[in-house]
């Protein structure tokens, strides 16, 4: 048996290069760098948006100008120069395709490397893909099936044109323009994103999925996602990202808004694998994301995330449990390696009666990375019988990384029951010994333990996504996942 | 005049009262500058996010009590742990009361900060220890600037102090509003053992604010056992900052019992500068009305093979608010650390609220760190069980609360304190408990 120790694993982790780091050479329609009101107007014009949308963007931009970048997160980085970024970039190809044959072959190649060949997806998984390369939706599949059910699933720019009444009514209701620095920036300059509307009582027959991908050098990507589940409907939404290797930091400031009306359920799963920077911590994506869901009566929102990428992650998918009996869930695995820094967690705001929330957060830090959980559980005085269970576990590999827990718990109601527990540990020598003793070599043993550690969260991913999640975990912790 | 300006102006008057040629005065001058630049903390500071000082800073506090006051021992006997023999260091309105105190220089020094700061024979200790572990935050700096009176305890090597030491501060209400800033220094040398009980008590309804700083040094294999009894009346507020610096194999524990006071803020900081150290911090908080208690703890694990245990229980009634902000910091070198933190809370009323933030910051991989935090109510099935067996509601509730806080009580090493705390809790709950916990 070859002896495989934790040191070997650590060595491997250090030297493991970003496999999916490649760059698609395509001409892009890119704006010059810088940001002012004219750029905001130009983006709006480019997207052929109505006046109200332009005004909405400008309002956000004006607010953003006066806001300061938040500094409370437990991360260190060189602040991006917002005037040195180009705020719009679209692949320079025809805007729409009817079939895959028309798609730029180079683009298809990109997808193949990512392991998401469209035809395969179409045939096998029954997954409708709204593929986003940089900022413009390139292909939308399975639209017909969805149309029959009355489900709207399209890019947000298309939705602004075709369903303005829905967008106007709901955009910014969960994450207001002025919510925070990055949300304001996103509101001003968002280039594209996905829009999804599930009508009353409809159960979406397939997992909806979008792939985001930063492709153009020096182009910030500002995605805006809006998912509305009308009364009694159900939708499972998947989001996954990979980005090519690049030396300059790329900024990603997305906003995701979920609205679950009475008795509706939204399951939102993310696999995030932005380029984390190389072993020296150079390059990598800055991921500053605002994700928030609103639950009306008896509604349920469930966030599942697997975070393996990004140089800096600043992300707190939250649930506002406004309606009585609503349920919020948050399942997360955050893996950091080399010089990655992650400050992630969730907020559960209990407003309605009998609201429940569950938080399971697993952090794995290796190399010189810093991994923080930051969460808020808030129970308002009217939220009778609120219930929360939180668990944050951290696994440390090596002695140069850090794991941190910052849970905030604010309770103003006597009938609330809140439990929070956190542990930090490393892979125990006794655990490895136990496996070795039973004929499992060290590599497999580590795989087993890491797998077991994250199982609670991996189990929550939809079937179609589990494979992808495994693949992405492999990149970050190759050698430890068997 | 704002309190801040008043204090800065008072510093000049203070300089007339003390010997400004002593080296310690440089420390004071430095500290007042620190305070001047920082001012009082506000809710914008992360460490004060849940505690506002506004309501207690608005009074026009007198900074220097005008004259010495006398109190008859029989009136205040009940505030002492009087059923056992103890050393006593007693202050009335911030002035030392020789009449009520019982100090000693017999092998150990249990005496006054004011004499330790001025007399040459203590100079070495003062130079080595004074203001060496206290942080430079604004309130500690304010205390340092006005540091003059308080308890000075020095236990040399290999001494087991036979009886506990009580530090008691009384305020008589002779001033309309009084600010007191006691400064304590406790140095326990190798292999020595000491038990200390601290209490602040206001005797009238006039507002009192105490900004106390205690520095504790537990050297090699020293054992320090510290108890804070906070059961003041509801016009008295306390900001207590305690800094404990531990050397190898030492054992330090601080128990904080918070039952009274208008606003109580406990800053408790442990620094483990050595291997195989054990730190224990435990607390019981039972408050009601509009009381506010804030526990802010830090354990900094600097070296390997150390342990820390934190256990804070809180029961909040009426419109009271509770805060727990605990932080465990494990340095990269501090391998094999075993840190445990628990915070359990019970809310009895819909107007009561609790904000808790148990933090872990860990930079070493081979550690066992965990924290648990719960907020809930009294167990209804347990209540039903007792009531179906004829135990009245009030008593059943009290029993459950005693059981809830028993984890903290069980590590109290002075039986008389246990009895006293049990009595205070029973009084607070309005029940008679016929047993000792």
TrEMBL record, chain A:
InterPro entries linked to this entry: Fe-S_cluster_assembly_SufBD, SUF_FeS_clus_asmbl_SufB, SUF_FeS_clus_asmbl_SufBD_core, SUF_FeS_clus_asmbl_SufBD_sf, SufBD_N
SUPFAM superfamilies attached to this UniProt entry: Stabilizer of iron transporter SufD
Ranges of residues in domain SUF system FeS cluster assembly SufBD core: 212-453
Entry's transmembrane regions: none
Domain SUF system FeS cluster assembly SufBD N-terminal positions: 127-204
Domain of life of the native organism: Bacteria
A Pfam family reported for this protein in Swiss-Prot or TrEMBL: SufBD_N
GO biological process: iron-sulfur cluster assembly
NCBIfam families, sorted: PRK11814.1, sufB
Family note: Belongs to the iron-sulfur cluster assembly SufBD family.
This protein's name: Iron-regulated ABC transporter membrane component SufB
The species this protein was found in: Gelidibacter sediminis
Lineage: Bacteria, Pseudomonadati, Bacteroidota, Flavobacteriia, Flavobacteriales
From TrEMBL, chain B:
Residues of the SUF system FeS cluster assembly SufBD N-terminal domain: 24-167
GO biological process: iron-sulfur cluster assembly
A UniProt-annotated Pfam family: SufBD_N
Domain SUF system FeS cluster assembly SufBD core, residue spans: 175-404
Family: Belongs to the iron-sulfur cluster assembly SufBD family.
Protein's recorded name: Iron-regulated ABC transporter permease protein SufD
